[in-house]
Write a structure and sequence with these properties.
By secondary structure, the chain is α+β, with helices and mostly antiparallel strands. The protein is globular and about 60 Å long. The chain has one domain: Roll (Thiol Ester Dehydrase, Chain A). It contains six helices and six strands.
Length: about 280
């Protein structure tokens, strides 16, 4: 098994640019792409992944029923007893992180091909660009992940020079009556703008996110978010976005992303997997 330090291993020895080139080649891309969009599409639907997604979908439906039920006390008690038993069953199963990388993918780029420090947990010292599980962490995203019951889930696409997200929020995401909680609106923008910043060819983290709420965003209706690059200044990537319910503009956003030293991602990942504190990001 490779120790992950050789320069030919997924570009890890020469940094994020080589990793980005290798992965873009795998995706058949001749220009910068959002791995959050294209990478997720390449993820193989294995039998286990399909079943994990089915389990998450059932849990997602359960959450929706829980926040809307008007059942009498005795039915609630019986349901809680059965659910607690199911939690004990699932809790007794093996657990841990069965994926590599970061659920929030704006900051995942070059880190996907960085070597693992010896002795840390994980399925391999380095995720190679041709590893079929390279993009598995996207499935656990709290916004687009099909294996995460907290995800609405949102579907992302490239449309011209923009990233378009489509999502319908259910009752579990309610803020004002019948409307999406503003925090989830902001989170959805962070997801879509984070995908769009990848089109710059850089890999960055959110430094600033500003949301203007134009009117309440409705629950149970198809919503469309669009995001595009607005400015590139060295390590700074600025992205703008909109949110529509039909023809109605409900919110706008602007985000600032800062290109990040790929080596720091490796330290963050190692600390996470070791169960310790995240390193100083200063």
């Amino acid at each position: 098994m490779s120790d992950g330090n050789d320069a030919d291993n997924s570009g890890a020895g020469t940094g994020g640019e080589d990793a980005r080139s290798l992965i873009a080649e795998r995706l058949g891309a001749d220009r910068p792409v959002s791995w959050r969009v294209e990478g997720f599409r390449t993820l193989e639907a294995t039998r286990r992944r399909s079943e994990v997604r089915r389990l998450a979908a059932a849990a997602r439906a359960l959450i929706e029923h829980l926040v809307t039920t008007t059942a009498p006390e005795e039915d609630v008690v019986a349901a809680a007893d059965r659910l607690e038993e199911l939690v004990r069953v699932i809790g007794a199963l093996p657990s841990g992180q069965a994926y590599e990388g970061f659920r929030e993918a704006a900051n995942a780029g070059a880190a996907m091909a960085q070597p693992r420090p010896a002795g840390t947990a994980g399925r391999a010292p380095t995720m190679a660009a041709d590893d079929p599980e390279l993009f598995a962490f996207f499935d656990h995203s709290p916004y687009i992940g099909l294996a995460n019951p907290l995800s609405p889930p949102m579907v992302l696409d490239h449309v011209g020079d923009r990233i378009v997200g489509r999502v319908t929020f259910g009752a579990a995401y309610e803020g004002p009556p019948g409307c999406v909680h503003g925090g989830y609106v902001a989170g959805a923008f962070d997801e879509v703008l984070g995908a769009a910043q990848s089109l710059s060819g850089l890999t960055g983290m959110t430094a600033h996110l500003e949301v203007d709420y134009r009117r309440p965003t409705p629950l149970h209706r198809p919503l469309v978010l669009e995001a595009w690059l607005s400015e590139l200044d060295g390590r700074k990537v600025r992205v703008r976005g909109t949110l529509h319910a039909g023809e109605e503009l409900t919110a706008e956003a602007e985000g600032l992303f800062i290109a990040f030293d790929p080596a720091k991602f490796g330290a963050m990942r190692a600390a996470r997997d070791a169960g310790g504190q995240l390193p100083d990001q200063g």
